[in-house]
Design brief:
The chain is mainly beta and 111 residues long. The chain is 0% helix and 54% strand. Strands 2, 4, 5, 6, 9, 10 and 11 form a seven-stranded mixed beta sheet that branches. A four-stranded antiparallel beta sheet has the order 1-3-8-7, with no helix packed on it.
Length: 111
């Protein structure tokens, strides 16, 4: 059993920055892939970014150049640094590893 605990998020004006963190409590591997997803009410959950066990990263096109995903395996933690935020980034953000999901954290970007 793995528990993912997220922190960060909140309300920010367009153009601002936020950082999300997610820590895993339980048995995970440094070879596992971390992911960040987001969901707007009434829409499907969307994969935003991922970082593989050896560090390769992938981003959805809409966040490339603005978001950075990183992992600290010694702390079982993944972060998502979000810069130049836009109102369309408003969503609930979830971390994911293996088959486990974080509880979700709200990100709201005002125009």
């Amino acid at each position: 059993q793995v528990q993912l605990v997220e922190s960060g998020g909140g309300l920010v004006q367009a153009g601002g920055s936020l950082s999300l963190s997610c820590t895993a409590y339980g048995d995970i591997s440094r070879f596992d892939t971390w992911e960040w997803h987001r969901q707007v009410q009434g829409k499907q959950r969307e994969l935003v970014a991922s970082v593989g066990g050896r560090g390769p990263t992938h981003y959805t096109n809409s966040v490339k150049g603005r978001f950075t995903i990183s992992r600290v395996d010694a702390k079982n933690t993944v972060t998502l640094q979000m810069n130049s935020l836009k109102p369309e980034d408003t969503a609930i953000y979830y971390c994911y590893i293996r088959c486990y999901w974080g509880q979700g954290t709200q990100v709201t970007v005002s125009s």
